Amino acid sequence: MLRSLLISALALALASSLGGCQDPGGPCGNEVLSESMSPSGYVTATTFRRNCGATTGFVKVVAVQASADAFDGDDKSNYVLVSDTDTPVTATWEGADVLRIRRSAGKSVFLEIRVFDGMQIRYNDEPL
């Protein structure tokens, strides 16, 4: 019984840190910080701050979606980076299918994808 409770608590904590946002009072808040359209114009990288209530804290997220689609911060299938809110993050395109994400070294990173929908995502941990 105690083991089941510990496993459940760990799963809940992990979901919260990934921006799971199971806030019963309503949806999470997403504040867009920047957007960067790929050179081809077909894809946009959006950097935003996500707030899902007092018990989960803020995270910074980079999401990649088709430029024709409206931004939806709740669509976690487009997330390529999730980090703590204190991390300065920039996302710029080095080519039609190469996205460079810069973030400070030593900060908490909860999700970091390196290949997404045929695109390469390169990270640079040098201080900004």
For the secondary structure, the number of strands is 9
* Cα-to-Cα separation, first versus last residue: 47 Å
Poorly predicted regions are: 1-25
Strand arrangement across the biggest beta sheet: 1-2-3-4-7
Gross morphology is globular
Helix count from the secondary structure assignment? 1
Task: Tell me what portion of residues adopts beta-strand conformation.
Answer: over 45%
Q: What percentage of residues falls in helices of 4 or more residues?
A: 10-25%
Radius of gyration: 16 Å
The main sheet comes to:
5 strands, antiparallel
Keywords summarizing the entry:
128 residues; mainly beta; five-stranded antiparallel β-sheet; 9 strands
Per-chain topology:
Elements: H1 2-17, E1 29-37, E2 43-51, E3 58-66, E4 79-84, E5 89-95, E6 98-103, E7 109-112, E8 115-116, E9 119-124
Parallel strand pairs: 6-9
Antiparallel strand pairs: 1-2, 2-3, 3-4, 4-7, 5-6, 8-9
Structural features, described:
This protein has one helix spanning about 1-15; strands at about 30-35, 45-50, 60-65, 80-85, 90-95, 100-105, 110, 115, 120-125. The protein is mainly beta and about 130 residues long. The longest helix has 16 residues, at about 1-15. It starts with a helix and ends with a strand.
Summarize the structure.
With 128 residues, this protein is mostly beta strands. It is 12% helix and 45% strand.
